[in-house]
Amino acid sequence: MTATDADPPTVPAIDIMSAEQVYPNGTRALLPVDLSIREGEFVTLLGPSGCGKSTLLKMIAGLLAPTDGRIQLWHRPVEQLASVGKRLAFVFQEATLMPWTTVARNVRLPLDLQGVAPAEADPKVAQALSLVGLTRFAGQRPRELSGGMQMRVSIARGLVTEPQLLLMDEPFGALDEITRNRLDGDLLELWQRQKLTVVFVTHSIHEAVFLSSRVVVMAARPGRVVEQVEIDQPYPRGPAWRVSQRYAQIAAHLQDSLLRASQDEDRLATEGRPA
Ligand SMILES: Nc1ncnc2c1ncn2[C@@H]1O[C@H](COP(=O)(O)OP(=O)(O)OP(=O)(O)O)[C@@H](O)[C@H]1O
């Protein structure tokens, strides 16, 4: 399922070809992953702690090179992304804002680092703040904002470079459930309005079902992809989706898939244990 019912986009934004990761200390974080993500999809990486979600996201972002295999974005290695006029942004779990300066200056940081002049940067900052509904808070300091608002500043900082690809590593994991649900809804609106491709990491089955056009289920020890589930529910999705029968069915299926994968882990661990 894609962003609209009309003509689903089919341009591949991300091609992950047998990409794997063994950290220098020998930890095999990810078995080879093969995954293709189309432009305009909202894909969630769902799995327990340690299954390699962040590792995979960092490899997509080019922050970590695969130890084997390769990853392309719009048919290019990530470092050549700009040559095809594409940009990506990475949003971390922590908002990591500079406490000593304003919301607007925090959002402007990526443009400052690129050497963009304030006269050119400031309208982009205003636009990004408007996208996350924080226009009125541009002059405030981060500590004056709630945790949810700080996360929205962090998202605005990601959006200010006008990316086509948004990579989000459990951005709402530290927030209370009500705030998290609201931000999930806001994020979907943003995704549709900006025609973004999103890869979103979460532990939460419910968040994954609410948001995703496709869920990639992962398991740990060793980290791997165990299943992919397309969610054939049209957008926009509102609160009624969260209490629908179909939503509950998909959540139950994902829970079952995660449970089966963790039983496999236990079995492997037991069988692998010396007598
Ligand atoms: N820099 C590193 N060096 C060595 N091992 C690492 C490193 N980073 C992660 N790992 C290990 O790789 C595995 C996958 O970690 P990763 O952080 O990708 O998992 P995750 O699914 O994102 O977990 P969480 O949900 O807890 O963030 C884990 O066993 C982790 O301990």
Automatic annotation (TrEMBL):
A Pfam family (short name) is ABC_tran
Does Metal-binding appear among the keywords? no
Residues of the ABC transporter domain: 11-247
Q: Which UniProt keywords apply?
A: ATP-binding, Cell membrane, Membrane, Nucleotide-binding, Transport
Q: Does the keyword tRNA-binding apply?
A: no
Q: Which SUPFAM superfamilies match?
A: P-loop containing nucleoside triphosphate hydrolases
Q: Which PROSITE patterns match?
A: ABC_TRANSPORTER_1 (PS00211), ABC_TRANSPORTER_2 (PS50893)
Annotated protein name in UniProt: NitT/TauT family transport system ATP-binding protein
- Which InterPro entries does this UniProt record tie to the protein? AAA+_ATPase, ABC_transporter-like_ATP-bd, ABC_transporter-like_CS, ABC_transporter_ATP-bind, P-loop_NTPase
* Gene3D superfamilies the UniProt entry points to: P-loop containing nucleotide triphosphate hydrolases
What the record says about family reads: Belongs to the ABC transporter superfamily.
Q: Name one GO molecular function term.
A: ATP binding
